[in-house]
Amino acid sequence: MMKQNVKRIGSWLFILCLMFILAACSGEGASSTNTNEAKEELTTEQGTNKTRIISTVTGDVEVPVNPERVIVDWDLGHVLALGVEPIGASKTILDYGQFLTPYVTDRTEDIGQDGQVSVEKMIELQPDLIITWDRNAVEQYSKIAPTVVFETQNYDNIHEEMTAIGEILNKQKEAEEWLANFDERVAATQAKIKEVIPEGATFSIIDVGTTKSTIVVGETGERGGDALYQILGVTPHPLVKSEIIDKNESRLDVSWEKVDDYAGDYIFMITTGDDTQPELPSVWNSLDAVKNHHVYELNIKKYFTSDPLSALLQAEEMAEMLAKGN
User: According to the UniProt entry, where is the signal peptide (predicted)?
Assistant: First the structure.
């Protein structure tokens, strides 16, 4: 039996050798073509795995040259602005960044509330790059995929933020193009309100719906501060400037008894936009802006976020409200 097996194997080896010889004789020209195709396929395969080193606030990080499966635990608008839709994002931003909704499809999955994201969900999504605001999360996230800390507070303006995120995503050209379009839209938006706002008029953003007290907003952070003061470039109420902006604070909690001290000639009022909005006390109706019908309501679910894309869309909506007088 063993001899029969050896013989069978020998016969098959002979046939295989003969086939290779015939193929070589009859297709020398084709072999050259096939070799080139193999090299092309190999190059493509290697290309998908190429990496590069970028400098971050936590040191050098090796990231994909062209990341395709990005997770962000906060800065959704930054990546959307450059045409990158992530596979995972914080539920907080998905719920409270409604200006971004038109740019998000079913591709972007909920990874949990800010500060309580699901590591299990992140693993399931198999990202090739994670962008986080949280330095403390880097060690854990890095076990899933290359992780880059992106801290917007380290940048002085939107141009610097978008240039930085463009470098992280290797979308430098897209960042330049977006910023050029951004500048054009900002100029048009500022021109829209110039004719309707009296010279010297002051502005405030006051949140009257999401906390027990009131929140007066500065020019950074959430609730439309970037949009109003940095993009539209209007004049803040003097105390908003001295007590919040000049002190590099994003906001100030103010009692209802003191709200008049921070109320500008024009007020953008942050509300919940639903039935949970509390009734305003009588002191609100005593404000000059209220009496003069210079109060404009902003829904927290649209104005909570402060990324460049959201801020631009917020500023354009604010300008439209001011131009229409409603």
Answer: 1-23
